[in-house]
Structures are given as structure tokens and as C-alpha cells.
Amino acid sequence: MTTLRTRMNLRVSLEAAYRSGASIGLVPTMGSLHQGHLSLVHAAREECEIVVVSLFVNPTQFKPGEDFSGYPRDENRDAELLTEAGTDFLYAPDIGEIYPDGFSTRVEVDGLTEMLCGDPESRGTEHFRGVTTVVAKLFNSVSPTHAYFGQKDAQQAAVITRMTRDLNFPVEIRVLPTIRESDGLAMSSRNAYLSPDDRVRAVALSRALKAAADVTPVVSLGAGIEAAMQTLADAGIEPEYLEARDAIDLSPVAEANGRPILIAVAAQVGRARLIDNVLIHPSNQTTAPGAVSEEQMS
Ligand code: AMP
Q: Taking all residues of the chain, what is their mean pLDDT, rounded to a whole number?
């Protein structure tokens, strides 16, 4: 694996791939890698001739007072894991490479970014503006044929899918299932913030979603949400949000309507702000998230 710090070196390294028309898979990350990230790298390795992983803790997607400065960073360990996973290139640019002096352009997706994590009470639309701006830059820097994202960040995946379509980025977006610890907790770099007691409580998020997914098909969506709220309350967790949304356009859903439903939760557990979600398919079966695309729904 070769580590590259500048866009210019990246382009030079990929020149042969561009010329031959080889498929290039990009996995954007903020590092502190776990099996969730690596599942994306493995998928890219299977589907693409060249695998590029980016590592950039993007300051513009953190609110003032959020965990930007304390975000876990361990590039050497990440590089080892990525080498083992068969990555060809690690693109780990310095901040000035992404945001040079005078940087003044933003990419913004309306609508989808204004609820859930984009609510002003939550992380706000600025969070997604930071994400879409940096991902657009990564797409233009790497020119991948495929890009890989996790269903764990369902709203982010929906926003990036919409940006890609709206701006005609010639890249196929792949959204892959959430990888979980054995007790169900969604893997996250932020799980490192959990104290032992909070780690035990944190499993309530995935339990709550499972309760919602179990109850909804046999009773109603309202009862499913109630069951989830109760599970969280039993663990002493008050969610930042727990909402049912259309899985594709994220519009609010009050009752099952024949389209896949996303139930998404965010909650502060001790020092960690955690998010998780589950997809409920119209066939009444809850399947591993990640199986729905705009193409399939149109
Ligand atoms: P991050 O480093 O948190 O920005 O995440 C980089 C990518 O990994 C994003 O596309 C995330 O959705 C994805 N990801 C994070 N956690 C998981 C997980 N537990 N399972 C699958 N994908 C994940």
C-alpha cells in the first residue's frame, strides 16, 4: 500500500489506472478504523481493480464544541489494517490540501439535510454541508468508478446518493450493511468514548431498533416506535431523535405504506453521541440494512 498526501501525487499514482479504464473503488473514512470500515474496503477489493481509502478527519463537519480535536486518530494502526485488507492507496491529505487558503466553495444538498442529524437541535445542516463538500472534493481528486458508504450513517448515504445524482458525478454509490459488535451495538469510532457502564447501556440503541422492527409489522409503526422508546427509557437514555422516515427520501412516515421505512435513532450515551438505524421492508421482513437504492424504488 502506498500512502499519498497530495492530490497531485494521487493523480500521478492513478494515471495508469485512468488510462487503462480500470475500476477504482474509493472508501472515504475519518480513520480510527474498525470492522465496519473494513467491510467497505473488502467490498471495494472484491468489485474493483484499484482500491483507494481516504483518511481525513474533516473539521467542517464538526460543530464548534463537538469532538473534532479529541476524535480518535491512529494512522499507523489504520495503515496496517488497510494493508492487510488489500488497499492499494491510502490518501491521507493534510488540511491545507483539502482547504487551501481562500477556500470558499460549498456543496449543499437541500431538504434531506434538514431533519434528523441535520436538525438545528442536532448537528445541523452545516454538518452535511461539510460532508458533501469534502466528498465532492474526494470524488474530484480520486475520480473513482465506485464509492463505498455504510448504512450505519443512513442519512449521510442518502445525501451523498442525491448529490451524486444531482451533480452527475460518474461514480456508482454502494451502501453496505451496518457491522455490529456481538451484542448488537453498531461499530463506531466513537464507541471508544464509552465508559464500561455506558458501553453496557449503549446496546439499548440496537435493542430499541430491534423492538421497533419486531413490533411494527405485527401491530403498527406507532406501537413499534413506542416499544423502541420504552427500551431506551429502561436504559435511562433519552434520544436526541427516534423517528420513522421513508428510507429513500427521508420524508416522515406515520404508517406502513408499501415502501421501505427507516427507523433512525441518535442519543448521547455518556461522552459518546451514537447513531443507529434499521430498515423495515414492505414484505414485513427486517433485513440487513443497505439493500435499498433509489434505482430499485423508481
Ligand atoms: P467515518 O470514519 O465514521 O466517517 O465512516 C466512514 C465510513 O464507514 C462511512 O461510510 C460510514 O457509514 C462507514 N461505517 C462506519 N461505521 C460502520 C459500521 N458499523 N458498519 C458499516 N459501515 C460503517
A: 94
Query: What cell numbers appear for 62 in the block?
Result: 464538526
Atom of ligand 1 nearest to the CA of 148: 10
- Separation of 189 CA from ligand 1 center, angstroms? 8
pTM (global) more than 0.85: yes
Q: pLDDT of 51-105, one tens digit each?
A: 999 999 999 999 999 999 999 999 999 999 999 999 999 999 999 999 999 999 9
Q: Is the CB of 186 under 6 A from ligand 1?
A: yes
Is 37 a catalytic site residue?
yes
Instruction: Indicate whether residue 188 lines ligand 1 (CB < 6 A).
Output: yes
Q: Are 33 and 164 in contact (CB under 8 A)?
A: no
What is the C-alpha separation between 147 and 157, in angstroms, rounded?
11
Q: Is 150 in the pocket of ligand 1 (CB under 6 A)?
A: yes
- Per-residue pLDDT reduced to its tens digit, 2-23: 999 999 999 999 999 999 999 9
Unique residue bearing C-alpha cell 465532492: 136
